[in-house]
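User: Molybdopterin molybdenumtransferase, Paractinoplanes pyxinae:
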Amino acid sequence: MSIEWEEARRLAYEAGRAAAGPAEPVALPDADGRTLAEPLRALTDLPAFPTSSIDGWAVRGPQPWRPVGRVLAGGVAAPLTEDGTCVEIATGAMVPTGAEALVRIEASTRDDDGRVRGEPRQGYVPEWRLPGEEASKDEELLPAGTAVDPAVIGVAATCGYESLNVYRRPRAGLLVFGDELLTAGTPGAGRVRDSLGPQVPGWLRRYGAIVEPGSVTGPVQDTLEAHLAAVRGALAGAELVCTTGGTMHGPVDHLHPTLAELGAEYIVNTVAVRPGYPMLLARVPGSDGRPRFLAGLPGNPQSAVIALITLVAPLLAGLQGRPAPALPTVEAAAKVRGRGDDTHLALARLDHDGRSATPVGHVGSAMLRGLSNAHGFIVVRPGTEAAPGDLVPFLPLPLVIGERP
Ligand SMILES: Nc1nc2c(c(=O)[nH]1)N[C@H]1C(S)=C(S)[C@@H](COP(=O)(O)OP(=O)(O)OC[C@H]3O[C@@H](n4cnc5c(N)ncnc54)[C@H](O)[C@@H]3O)O[C@H]1N2
Ligand code: MOO
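Assistant: Predicted structure for Molybdopterin molybdenumtransferase:
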């Protein structure tokens, strides 16, 4: 009996979450793309000291003010103890205790005897930054599970971190099954080009996996022996192995017998979704005691990508300690039919403001033309259909800004 689509996603995420590896410290510049294993907390107040936002004068008491010193960024100012005195101050310098106002250099004049006159600027933007204005010591700035990006690295550096405790990026491999597949040239005479070997590693990387060029193999010969040897070899070097094709029970579909031979345990074995129904996810015991995962992507190319987004994306999120992927809601711009008791994933393009989605053409499960023109899938739940204007969940492709403008 196949599993409901949402339930399959949940099971895949939970399986990954339970197998997330230990955290490790990684130097800030190398942490891009990792995931915080613990909350990022401010190590001090931020700013850590009262900081001048301007070049000018820190003044005390009524003007004119007699300059008694200078403080540059990086220095520690002596306190201003007497009314009618000031220190010259640079942007970023620590404001001396006792200072009552800051006067911009361009708003000041000097008397013949060197005394300073001028008016502190009144207004919305203060001329100095107060300790704790951005964060107080120990305040949580970002929760565990946050994907580390350059801005996260920047704020961690500001706080005083040299490294971050992050989860490992999972290693993934890919095995392509199918004797009918060509790896070069044009299709014909019963042969088709392998369109999954070249594209799946890119999707996997976008979901955070490491895929070395040497971890992509295929076509693997359509025999049980060749399948077993290839899967064993791939599982030795990766915690996730994706396979394409052979998920059914045809004469040369060897995936299920291979899994049986390896003592694998199914987490998901077929999903009530169209396209993509025969997808599977299995847990295989690793020789080191840590589980390995095998995701069986159906051979029909669009179905394979759907299986990847349905099962592999939540699995990888879990393995990296990230939250389960959530679905945004959009408006269906046209009618989308239901698929009976199955969830229907209908390829669609988002309009320019991302609020409504229009189904695209060329969406057969053996086709990729629709996929290459879509931003994701309208999700039509079992027993329903979407009418124009209906609010529907949207399953996005992991596209990078600038792709599919
Ligand atoms: N009797 C039934 N037959 C099929 C059913 C069914 O319910 N009963 N379901 C169909 C569905 S749905 C799918 S999806 C496929 C899945 O089959 P497999 O995962 O076993 O995949 P294959 O048979 O190996 O290939 C299917 C199809 O895809 C082409 N293919 C495979 N790999 C690639 C690749 N890397 N690049 C491009 N094209 C690929 C292959 O040539 C076949 O045309 O089963 C249906 N059959
Ligand atoms: O479910 Mo198949 O995956 O429709 O092509």
